[in-house]
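re: ur question from earlier - yeah i can do the single chain one, its not a big deal. heres the input i used so u can compare w yours
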Amino acid sequence: MSRAFVKESDGSEGEELPELLVSPHRNLVTAAGLKQIEATVDRLQSALSEARAAADRAAIAQVQRDLRYWTQRLRTAELVAAPEASDTVRFGASVALEKKDGERIEYQIVGEDEADPARGRISYVSPIARLLIGASVGDFIALADGEAEILEIG
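and the output i got, formated as tokens:
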């Protein structure tokens, strides 16, 4: 049987849950990203207390695993100061691009844990961010669906 159809264990059968994988990249974060990590650790600590009070072994195992991950992410977080006005794109910057068809796209380059591509926040290790970092206003970036010009850096 394919592993795709095998139910993942939730830890209730006595099996250990697999650890969450930690990225091999530096854990760069913006001030907002650091606050998100801190809030997640606080929320998980509360959830662990609740799971222990309810004697819910499966929930305890899952929350402990998640708490180990987020505590490590908090411990390794490297706060990067918000960029000042700059001629080049760097970590934390907001970038406005315009495609050939006139469509405008905006990205903010952030840490891995705070990335949310649907909201325009992309991880600094993503392919698009790697193209943007170091680029300047007027430069063209090759996107998957065509070129885009950097209009603004904030």
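The two ends are 52 Å apart (CA to CA). not sure if urs matches, ping me
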